[in-house]
Amino acid sequence: MGMSLRALQRRHNVTWRTVRRALDGQWPEPRKRQRRKESRLDPYMPLIDGMLRADLDAIIQTGTESYRLARTKAQSERADAG
Fold first, then answer.
1. What residues have CB less than 8 Å from 19, skipping those under 6 apart?
2. What residue spans of the chain are helical by DSSP H?
3. What is the mean pLDDT of residues 50-57?
4. What InterPro entries does its record include (predicted)?
5. Which of 6, 17, 57, 78 is such that its CA lies 20 to 30 A from the CA of 34?
6. What are phi and psi of 33, to 5 degrees?
């Protein structure tokens, strides 16, 4: 003997309608494709892309590089003072 609808509902954590549809052999309807909404930034994307591409040539400092540069600067200032 099979499981009851309620037992299937609890086991799979779905509603009784979902269990009924599954037992009746109905396939779910295909999902609708959602249209992409226009962003407020879309008019500015070429400008932003240009700025980011220009910034690729800039030096990016990580935390350790910043620490190393600050330590080197402090050491050179002490050497100049002493």
1. 5, 8, 9, 12
2. 5-12, 16-24, 45-55, 63-81
3. 77
4. HTH_IS21_transposase_type
5. 17
6. -75, 130
Residues 6+ apart with CB under 8 A from 20: 5
- Whole-number percent of the chain with pLDDT over 70: 87
19 within 8 A of 12, measured Cβ to Cβ = yes
pTM comes to 0.32
Between the two ends of the chain, the Cα-to-Cα distance in Å is 93
Q: Which amino acid is at 11?
A: R
On the CB side of 70, CA atoms within 13 Å amount to: 7
Q: Which tops the pLDDT comparison, 69 or 38?
A: 38
Q: What is the reported pLDDT for 71?
A: 80
